[in-house]
Every structure is written in structure tokens, then in C-alpha cells.
Amino acid sequence: MIEVVKSYQDGKKIFRLKNEKISVDVSNFGGTILSIIVKDKEGKQQDVVLGYDHLEDYAHYDGYLGALVGRVANRIAKGTFTLNDKTYQLAINNGPNCLHGGVKGFSYRVFDDEIKNDQLILHYFSPDGEEHFPGNLDLYATYTLDEDALVINYHATSDQDTLINITNHSYFNLNGCPSSIDNHTLQVQAQYFACSDEDGLVTGALRDVDHTPFDFREEKTIGSQIHRDDEQLTIGHGYDHPFIFDSETNQVKLYSPLTGIELTVSTTLPQAQLYSANYLDGRLGKNGKPMNARDALAIETQYMPDSIHKERNSKTILRKGEVYDETTSYRFKVRS
Ligand code: BGC
């Protein structure tokens, strides 16, 4: 069932997608996931994503809590790129680079909405030149519940060649409130991760996870790894790195022994930025509770950041007439 639970005068809305197993609040403001409520091992309801009490806070703060991020998630080196012999200059909004689509990326836009066949379809038309990207781009983000899973499909087309890299930036804490994720266990099907520089930009180097604190091929607690002495962990202030997937389904599993809740992320995308919320600064979130660094894990499925500079035949180029079509699901279970 999907219903509108709140409408604002400026066109913003909050929708609730709900079945017996899961209840998800989503706003057409930035396609933002406001809450995901599932039952824990005692049958108690837990909200497993960080966020704010008021929708205005999502417009006011950075951090991209729960937001859909685009047109190009993550960093583009020096905010510039060349496509079809034309050079584009984007906003520099994160050190020397462009982050998360520029000053007013998709996370800060109001989407059109439609409820159809038990799906919430959010649509955003991004005009040619918006945030200095070429091409009129139509993005459809479709949110569906599939039993105990939230499934998001992204579908985009453009009337000119352009760049695209969409993600969702939910901060998961399966304890049910902002609190250290040291107790969570993590499993990631990734033999390699991408190294980053001091500004969080990928360097282009991939590193084998073997014998590093990035090796989550077998399930481990985050707390047993994140405090280890490692140059990349120091540079990132924790995890803030792309993990390159070896498998095509169920690539990431996160589990809290406290609540028994397990999240499995499955995606058509080739990697995810795992970000241990290193820059959360004690700002107040839901129920007035402070949100601090390492109080959550964001699992941002996406293509390689800065792919336009780092990869040949970048998959982040969306050609005129082609379709960008990617799906990520978030499945919640209680471990017995
Ligand atoms: C980036 C972080 C950044 C965070 C919030 C993540 O995707 O990798 O470095 O601080 O988003 O903007």
C-alpha cells in the first residue's frame, strides 16, 4: 500500500510504502528515504536509517541523509570534464572537486510523483545546462516493496550525450538509532577497493583487500577493522571508499547482533562507496538525538567515481538515445 502522509504548500510530499514486513517513508524532495521501519528479533519496530525530524532539515543540511544523488554522485576531479571535444566546468564544492552533482544536485530538487501499480514513481526533468551538465535529462526513480525489501529502479535518458551516476545515500544503523556501528558485522563481495586521496577523490589505483582492513569477504565486525592502522583508513577518516564487486547479486550484508536485523544489498551496479559517516558532526537527528561520526554506514551503489577521468569507455557516459537502467534492492531479515 502507498499513501501520501503529508503534503506541503511548496509541492513537497511524504509518501509511505507499507506492507506487513516493512514501512518506508520517501519524499519527492530529493527522492529522499526518510525512514525504513522493520521488526527486530523481539518483534519491536526499529527505524534503521538516520535522518531528521523535519523535512526542512534535509534542505538545510549537507550530508545527503537518505537522498537520491545525481546527476553524478561522488567526485569529479577539479569539477571539469571533456565530452565530445567540449569542456565543461562544474561547481567546485568539495575541496578542489565537484561532489554529488554540484551545488544543487538532484538531492535538493522537488520531483514529480505518481503512484501506479503499487509503485511510487518519482520523475525529475533536469534541463540542459543545469549545474553545467549537458543535455536535457529525464530521470525516473521507482520505489517498490517486494516482501521484506525496498527496491529502487533508476531509469534515465538524455537528448544529448551527458554523464550520469545515480546513487542513494541512506545512512544505515541496524541498532535502530544513531550509535557506533562497531558492533555491526559486514560482508562485502569485493576483492579490490579503490584508493582515495586526502580530498576523497579516487586516485585510480585499486588495492587488493587481502591482509588489509578492507577485507570483508568473510563476515567481520566493523569495530575489529576500522580502528586498524592503515594509510587509506587514515586518509578517509574511516571507510569512504569504493568496493569493487566480484558478484552480481547480494554483494553487501550488514548485521546488528543487538537487534538481529540483517540487511542485504543487491544491485546491478558494479560497486559501492562504503562510507562510515566520518563527517557526521553531532547535528541533531530524529527525536533530537545527536548523530556522530561512525554512527552509520552508507552503502552507495554506483559506477566508479570520477570514471570519466579514470576509466576507458566510461559507463557514466549516457549517450543520446541510450537508456540508463539500474536497480538496487535493500532486503531486511531477522537472523534466527
Ligand atoms: C562521500 C563523503 C562525503 C559524504 C557526504 C560520501 O558519498 O564519499 O566523502 O562526506 O558523501 O557528502
TrEMBL record:
It catalyses: alpha-D-glucose = beta-D-glucose. Its EC number is 5.1.3.3. Signal peptide: none annotated. It comes from Sharpea azabuensis. Beta-D-galactose binds at residues 74-75, 169-171, 240. One of its GO terms (molecular function) is aldose 1-epimerase activity. GO terms for biological process: galactose catabolic process via UDP-galactose, Leloir pathway; glucose metabolic process. The active site is at 169 (proton donor), 300 (proton acceptor). The lineage of its organism: Bacteria, Bacillati, Bacillota, Erysipelotrichia, Erysipelotrichales. The keyword Magnesium does not apply. Pathway: Carbohydrate metabolism; hexose metabolism. Keywords: Carbohydrate metabolism, Isomerase. NCBIfam families: PRK11055.1. Belongs to the aldose epimerase family. This is Aldose 1-epimerase.
